[in-house]
Amino acid sequence: MRFKAQIHNIQTFTKLTASLNSLGPLAWLKLSDEQVCFTIIPEQGTQVWAVLSIDTIFDTYAVQSAANNVINLEVPLGPLNRALKSALNATSAQMRLTKKDSIPLLALTISTTSSNNSYSAFPAGANRDDNAIFDDHFGGNRETIITQEVPIRVLAPDVVSGLHEPQTREPDVHIVLPPLMQLKSISDRFTKLAMAGARAGSGTATTRTRLEMAANMHGCLKMSLKTDAMSISSVWTDLVNPELDPSQVANGDIGIVEHPSTRMKLLGSADGQSDEGWASVSIDGKDWGKVMSVGRLGGRVIACFCHEHALILYVYLPTDSGEDESVLTYYISSYSA
Amino acid sequence: MMVVLNFTLTPEAAAKVHDLLVCLGKFSDTVAIEARRERFIFTALNSSKSAYAALTLDGKQFFSSYECVPSHGGPDGRFTCSMYTKALLSVFKGRLYDPLGRDGAIDRCEVSVQDREDETQCRFIVKMVCNQGVIKTYKLTYEAVDVMHALFDRNVARNRWSMNAGVMKEYIEFFGTKTEMLDIFAGEDGRAVFKSYTEKIANGKEILKHPLVTAVAVNTSDFEEFNVQPGCHIIISVKDFKAIVIHADTMKTSLKAFYSHPTRPLQFSYGCDGLLCEFTLMTSGDYNGATALPTPAPAAQVSRGASLAASAATSDARENRSMRPPVEPPSRRPPRRQVGSRQAALPNRPPQDPESLFVNEDEEEDTQWEPADYNNEEEALGWDASADRNAGNFPTFQDSGSFSRPDGVQSNTDSMEGIAPTQRVSQVKGLW
Amino acid sequence: MEEEDELPLLTAVSSSARQLYLLLRCINFAEKAHVQINDGGLQFSVDEASVMEGSAFLSKDLFTTYTFRAPAPSQREINDSDDEDAPLEPDLPTFQISLPALLETLQIFGLTDPSTSKPHWARDAPASTATGGAFTNNVLGMNNMCRIAYASPGSPLSIVLTEASIRTTCNLTTYEPTFANEIPFDRQALAFKTIMRGTWLYDAVAELSSTSPEKLTLWARTRARKPYFALSSSGTLGSARVEFNNTPVTRAPPPTNNAGTVDAGAPQVNLLETFQLSDPTTPFRASYKFSLIQRAARTMSVATKVSVRVDEQGVLSLQFMIEVEPGKVSFVDFRFVPLVEDDEDVEETQFLGGEEESDESVMEDEDEL
């Protein structure tokens, strides 16, 4: 079993691990010749299935194993993220699978070069001679090698063979979400209001931070909450409902005609005032806040609403080529009404 | 006769007091103060007694005015007390010094000690004189204690290095959180490696909770001085190291390290502008080795009651600046048990860290290091500010190596400028 | 919701939800706030256990439009009236709402200082989101439009905030008022009054909080015809006192080489703009529960000025002047019931944990100056 790669986009990799870490501490990392997959399946809450093209994060990538060159690892996201952060200013960063004292590790080897200027604050009160010596010493660049060892577990193929991506029905509404920082900021306030309402009112633990999310096929997204003290809703308008690609839908053009979203287009309005045409889900505000953490990656996000069933988010990582090769899929199930 | 202790700080110096208290607060809940005629020293010892700090403020250089006339002991007399670090920090807040003179900035800071014979409580009085006629006055309670110093012999510590604290701070930022140990290794390839790790070996799924192991390899040419025997590993607490580096960086100075070999104490030293900081840390043996870890000596921070007993017992007491080992026969020391019997009246003892690298003290000795309970009536009544506080026998804990040192070495004050080490409990017991 | 023949009692539009938020946040120490609507604006008030109360007035000047249709006084009142010109007390709408809910709503779009044009999440937004239609309107000025409406007695208080293409509608449940007795404060019989900068008071209270005190004591005295005002407290770790002197310190300086800078450098600013004692010959002293005073700390920190007044009964009134925008001020008021001190000297001595802290010796100390 062998894995070795140069990290190509340290920023993206760091943000990715930070986003995933907000949903769960451990990820299943599947390395293969074609893809790099991260999967988080927490005991409760949202699942994430991330499929990345290799060149999204790696360069000169080599993976070898007896199982068709596939390696399955269980990786602690916190330490991995911490290790990656130390490479943010690196001149080069390499990751490889290794073993130490029979414990498997992902070892990151990071080279940094600091120029003398990186610590410009010279001892103000120190005597001049010291400074002179100092300058002599550090006239050039300092090269430092940092090694970070992330403990991991190697997963046997039969351990992961039982893990499958959730199956959902065709969505009733699909819509491009507004910027996630904006959405997160507003939904965090809703969650706080829900918690305040639960404190004051009679809400049980499970209903405490429940928010209603809804969208229609006329560019509207709605978030709402009702407590004893208030009812509040925020409505976004002028969002985009992307056209379905016939090549991606079962039965092509006919499939599109029969698609639930096509029927939903006949209902509701673009000002968000109508009560009709909404596909809605009931979600946990705290969990949603964790999902929104993916906004740091800056990708385009399409939300698919299966009315009273599930909300699926597709987060497309920005790539140089402009193609959507790397996608993170979030499965958020709806509380029953 | 009562002590006279008055001093004035500039805003810059008061801000430095804030910075050093922040650092000492990472070692101990209490700081001890020792004021002498020419200098003022903050000391702190951590609860596992593996780290001892002594920060010396020069009377002439650090203060804008400084006057200390200890009540006893003549030119070598001293005034000592102990205070909660938190209480001092609430007075020496951040932003005392603001070149723009905004709110919170002070014009000067005046400190005096009220240690009158007729007072049941002693007060450390700090007056912050701010701009525009605002004056903030604090009266803090303190407890009289004896202050002890660790000895450190730099002549023995042949391994030395020195590095700009700002550069060192860049390195510590790479260390993972929650790691416990730092191995400083002098390679034979012209590199020094700072490795932060945790010694626990976990199994199964627990492995994934294991903190990061981080190794930072630095060219020895990047040090201002690097004179360490190749192949030498020395292990200290990473938390202590971080606290020291961060403080040294606030002073924009260089951090110097002195050590001999594992299980012997290591000293970090830095300073400028009349402030000298020395930290003496216990080190452990070979990396991953099975070497028994030594425990520093319990340099008992005896309560005043005990110290009075000590003074009474040793009327011919000497000033101990010379750092000579104590020569009183053990029988003339105050019986330890007498002090230990107080322990029932001392609540809030922090629990022993079960993961401490260092061997636990036996309970009795550990208790003596605890701060007294300021609210405990009985304890307070026991104080007697008027009592003759003899500048006499200040117990000292010694590097066991110094016992075999010839007198010639001992008199070499240069080698004794430091304060420091620590020794095995078993050896201390043997002495008494 | 609004029927044509029944116009709402109140319609008020503000171009800055932020200003309303900053004022109402000052009194955010209770779950429910009383709201009273009148011709001049909206009065919000909260109280705690009848020992402390706070109120903020949203003057109609804060709104671009403010339409209050006072309900017609009842027919009976008109008939009973002897003089038709006598002003009739209209039934001013009064109710309670959830104050935390209102505050969260007002800041739903964030609260960036108007001088920085973008909210934090717009500034931080990754550049890549700036491409593509739906992502272009992430730059929202935070001086968002806010409309407040109250249709009729029993209706919810409705808040509508709009920002670019987002519209937030909040209906706050209105509850029956519970009429607690206002803490009486006698403006005509003041024992002490001073006016100072809000931040001075804030700084002093923050300083004293480090002793974790239970009690805050105010001291005032005229010393050598100079005003002197101090706050003191004490806790387990020691005691602290912050004093305000109207003239720069003139005490013979201790041997310090920078003592001269006080006279030379410090501008002659009067810390205490106004200073009145009903009896200038007697030192004034009154104590209050520290944790209650601390509730006003946020207000102190944003206030331009504070008027500190204590009446003969010891009730403390803190009136804060807050500049919501240059040249436009609003007021937030607090009142506190004093702590009763039966045997002052004994208690004080005990509380401060030392004789030297007693009333006399503190004042003695000042006389030395």
UniProtKB/TrEMBL annotation, chain A:
Coiled coil: none annotated. It comes from the Eukaryota. The keyword Nucleus applies. Belongs to the HUS1 family. InterPro entries: HUS1, HUS1/Mec3. GO terms for cellular component: checkpoint clamp complex; nucleolus; site of double-strand break. This is Checkpoint protein. It holds the Pfam family Hus1. It comes from Bimuria novae-zelandiae CBS 107.79. GO terms for biological process: double-strand break repair via homologous recombination; meiotic DNA integrity checkpoint signaling; mitotic DNA replication checkpoint signaling; mitotic intra-S DNA damage checkpoint signaling; nucleotide-excision repair; telomere maintenance. It is found in: Nucleus. The keyword Nucleus applies. Gene3D superfamilies: 3.70.10.10. Keywords: Nucleus. PANTHER family: CHECKPOINT PROTEIN, MITOTIC AND DNA DAMAGE CHECKPOINT PROTEIN HUS1.
Automatic annotation (TrEMBL), chain B:
Acts in DNA repair and mutagenesis. Involved in promoting resistance to ionizing radiation and UV light, as well as regulating cell cycle progression after irradiation. Residues 303-432 are annotated as: Disordered. InterPro entries: DNA_clamp_sf, Rad9, Rad9/Ddc1. This is DNA repair protein rad9. Belongs to the rad9 family. One of its GO terms (biological process) is DNA replication checkpoint signaling. It comes from the Eukaryota. Keywords: DNA damage. Residues 303-315 have a biased composition (Low complexity). Pfam families: Rad9 (PF04139). The keyword DNA damage applies. It comes from Bimuria novae-zelandiae CBS 107.79. Residues 393-415 have a biased composition (Polar residues).
UniProtKB/TrEMBL annotation, chain C:
It comes from Bimuria novae-zelandiae CBS 107.79. One of its GO terms (cellular component) is checkpoint clamp complex. InterPro entries: Rad1_Rec1_Rad17. GO terms for biological process: DNA damage checkpoint signaling; DNA repair. It is found in: Nucleus. The keyword DNA damage applies. Gene3D superfamilies: 3.70.10.10. Belongs to the rad1 family. Keywords: DNA damage, DNA repair, Exonuclease, Hydrolase, Nuclease, Nucleus. This is DNA repair exonuclease rad1. Residues 345-369 are annotated as: Disordered. GO terms for molecular function: exonuclease activity.
